[in-house]
Structure formats: C-alpha cells, structure tokens
C-alpha cells in the first residue's frame, strides 16, 4: 500500500485511490505557480490571484476525482479543485480561493534544475531544518502570507529520514517542517521530493483541513511516463 515508510529503495506498484469527504475552503493568496518561459521556481512569489491557463485534464477516474498531468507525472485530485498550469508546473487550488492560495498544492517537474540555487537538491535541503524553501525569510502563516513582511524565527524538520511510497512504487524523501514566525504565528510546510527524477510535490503552507487531499494526491502520484 502506498504511504509513509522508513525504507529507501525504489520500485514500482500500481493503484487508484478514492477520496474522503470534501474539506472546507480556506483564504489568503500564497504563491503563483511557475514563472515566465521556463517556469523557474525563483519566480514563485507570494502573489494573489496569479495562475496559468487551465491544462487539459482526464475524465474523472472515480467519483469526485480527476487525473492531472505535468510532463508525464500524473496524480489524482478532487475534481472541484482548480488547476493552474504554467511552464509545465501545476498548482492545485481549493474551490473558491485565489489561484495558488494558502493551502494549495504544487507539482513541479525539473524542480532543482529550474532553480538557480538547485533547491531543494543542493546540500540535501529537503532533509535540513532550514531547507523548507529557497527563501526562508518570510512567514507564510494564514494571517501573514499575503503581507510577506513578517520574519521567520526558526524551523524544525519534524519527520527526519522519512520516505513515502507513491503509486509507481518510487519512494520520495518526505519532509514536514514546523516553521515559527517572530509574531508568534506558525505554519507547516510539506514536501515529497524525488532527487533522481527531480520531481517535487510541495505545500508551501498547509491547511490541516486538506490533509486527506495532500496525502492521497501524494499516494496517487505516478512518474512512469515522465521523461519518455
């Protein structure tokens, strides 16, 4: 069964997943997905309401779900979530919220290759306390994400050396950070990163109401067609 594991080997497996009850929507814009031309991660900023064109999506595989694809990497998401596609990167936004808002989920292929600092690959940032973003200066809590001018006090990787099994049986480095802000706020960042494939599934600031969405999207992620 796909999910979290302590192992490190890579392999393959097949599976399709349903979804639980829909989670409540949330507020505040967090980031735009991708950038001009190549969709550089450097251009992923705290901007409200910016997203690319809607990509083609497959018909729903099961009731309430649909399959999205970025450069041969596919996964299942709730069909009511909006999908933005820019530069081959996807941003999945809860219904009724600004594009790439707080609580959204990003799927990026060639993640480190796009980034001038090779984040999150360089120095194995995906496994470091301060590796939760390429720029860790700004707080991204629900109350501060839009302003972008509240400093970060510190961060802790709460699940070091954890691996996660996806639908193709590949194991990603799964990281969850607890980040604290100077004003007393805190937020959680989640990452699933495949260093060899350079595929990143990323939640800049997680909304706990969407825990099932994040988990099951990660479980269903399939990189079989990536690089074909």
Q: Overview of this structure, please?
A:
The protein is mainly β. 6% of the residues lie in helices and 29% in strands. The chain contains 2 helices and 11 strands; from the N terminus they run E-E-E-E-E-E-H-E-E-E-E-E-H. The chain has helices spanning 111-114, 211-220; strands at 3-5, 65-70, 73-78, 82-86, 89-93, 105-109, 152-157, 162-165, 171-181, 186-194, 199-203. The strands form 2 sheets. Strands 1, 4, 5, 6, 7, 8, 9, 10 and 11 form a 9-stranded antiparallel β-sheet that branches. Strands 2-3 form a two-stranded antiparallel sheet. Strand 4 (82-86) and strand 5 form a beta hairpin. The longest helix has 10 residues, at 211-220.
Strand count, sense and closure of the main sheet? 9 strands, antiparallel
Structural class: mainly beta
Distance between the termini: 26 Å
Overall average residue pLDDT: 77
User: Which percent range describes the beta-strand content?
Assistant: 25-35%
Write the SSE topology.
Layout (H helix, E strand, L loop, with lengths): L2 E3 L59 E6 L2 E6 L3 E5 L2 E5 L11 E5 L1 H4 L37 E6 L4 E4 L5 E11 L4 E9 L4 E5 L7 H10 L8
Antiparallel strand pairs: 1-8, 2-3, 4-5, 5-6, 6-11, 7-9, 8-9, 9-10, 10-11
């Amino acid at each position: 069964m796909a999910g979290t594991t302590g192992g490190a080997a890579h392999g393959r497996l097949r599976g399709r997943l349903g979804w639980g009850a829909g989670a409540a929507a949330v507020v505040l814009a967090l980031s735009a997905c991708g950038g001009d031309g190549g969709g550089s991660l450097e251009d992923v900023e705290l901007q409200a309401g910016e997203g690319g064109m809607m990509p083609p999506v497959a018909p729903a595989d099961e009731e309430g779900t649909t399959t999205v694809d970025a450069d041969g990497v596919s996964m299942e998401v709730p069909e009511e979530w909006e999908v933005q596609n820019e530069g081959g990167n996807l941003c999945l936004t809860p219904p009724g919220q600004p594009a790439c808002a707080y609580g959204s989920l990003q799927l990026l292929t060639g993640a480190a290759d796009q980034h001038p600092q090779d984040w999150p690959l360089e120095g194995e940032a995906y496994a470091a306390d301060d590796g939760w973003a390429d720029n860790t200066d700004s707080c991204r809590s629900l109350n501060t994400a839009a302003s972008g001018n509240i400093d970060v006090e510190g961060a802790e990787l709460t699940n070091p050396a954890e691996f996660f099994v996806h639908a193709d049986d590949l194991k990603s480095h799964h990281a969850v950070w607890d980040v604290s802000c100077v004003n007393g706020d805190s937020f959680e960042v989640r990452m699933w990163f495949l260093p060899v494939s350079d595929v990143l599934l990323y939640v800049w600031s997680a909304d706990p109401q969407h825990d099932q969405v994040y988990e099951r999207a990660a479980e269903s992620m399939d990189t079989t067609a990536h690089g074909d």
